Amino acid sequence: MTPIGDLSAVQLRDALAHGDLGAVETAEHFLARIEERNPALGAFVHVAAELALDRARALDALPAGAARGPLHGVPLAVKDLHDVAGMPTTYGSAAVTGRRGGAPVAEADDDLAAVLSASGAVCLGKTQVPEFGLNCYSENLVAPPARNPHDLSTGAGGSSGGQAAAVAAGLLPVAPGSDGGGSVRIPAAVCGLVGLKPNRGRVPTADAQSDAAQLVVNGPLARTAEDAALLLDVLCSPAPGPAHGNVVQRAVRAAPQGSFLDAVRAARRGDLPWGDRPLRIGVSTASPFDAVQDIEVSREARAALDAGVARLRAAGHEVGEAGLSYDPEYPGAFFDVWTTSMGTAPLDDDQAERLTGLAGAFRARALRRSAVELARAASVLRRVEQDVVRAYGVWDLVLTPALAMTPRPLGWYWEGYDLADPAGADQDYRRQCGYTPWTSVVNVVGLPAVTVPTLWTRAAGDDGPVVPMGVQLVGRPSAEAQLLAVVAQLEDQGLPGPRPAA
Asked: Whole-prediction pTM value?
């Protein structure tokens, strides 16, 4: 039999369902991997070995014929933005942990944890995030940074950086992330994974941060299209019990014709969601941030985009220039809406002093922003949504680079400043926008999107580590099954898969 750690999530699910593997055996294997590999990676900030093994023993003790969930015995973890009963939640913030470094232990599961528990999954612990999930890198003041398994000198991206690092390094078979401005797609691209942001409303969502603009949605980070589809099917389930928090329960909770996993498998048999015709795919490197800064598309990013174009054409699709442009008011409006969550965070003055420089600066500006200014910003984003959906709708899919540069070195965003220094906030945010210029607008307009690796390249000359680079595909409304089918097509023609990680 294939070693446990080499199984795909679908294969692992099947082995557990058929009794070829036990939940305890599986949990012990992945816990051992975490103990061995996590010190170098910083993926996990809390490992709940005893809770996980107790849960696995209970699953193994189920009598024959008892109902089993779709992820029965599959090991998972959640970002340290989510509450899991019996585990501490730091939100990646020293403001929460306090001066003595402690964090409150959750008394109950939040909605995501409840959905995963109802599916039969075994939660192994919590993974690293930026403070309050704000950034596209997972570095904070409470724990070691999440590192890219393919180049330990670089970060794993964010805000689902710990999740992506864990999957890419084989510490987890698959992982759920949350995406409010690229937080699934960015770390997936950094770590060479498939990262899917579902359509707004597809997944019932309750996020740790305030989300009045409805930017955030939970989605899968996975090694393959099938694994992403398997987890997406589970994420589309409503949380058990009465709805609570700010959970959005209006989702269309299944693929157009059955499960998303069924859709991917049907595509591999030639039964494509779009029929026999080729897809029309528009390519663009235009960014909504072009109005306020020069977005440099690196040689490696262009090579990844060219590789994506070539592979899509080889799959039979029509690819052409999209000729897109964006409202010049987008950057300011997005900043105002995105930073508002820090203004509503329930922190006293003593706690606020322990924020990172970026979060502290965001909070100060949010507290000074009037309701009229926020309403104006929200109005701009709604206008952007209408314009972008109309412009993208000319095409079946829109293709962009996933990231503008190769994975960034640890500390690059606030280079020249201390992480706790608010003076570095503007440079930090500007560099984030320059590195990830194509992701946030997809959250604003609510469309589904996926990032997928298209090539591997050396990040620092001929002697540098080999790292992944990829592309982003943005679909029409509710086109997740179509996006996953395209990823499956690319995989079937030899899409480069994750290399053995450090």
From this structure: 0.95
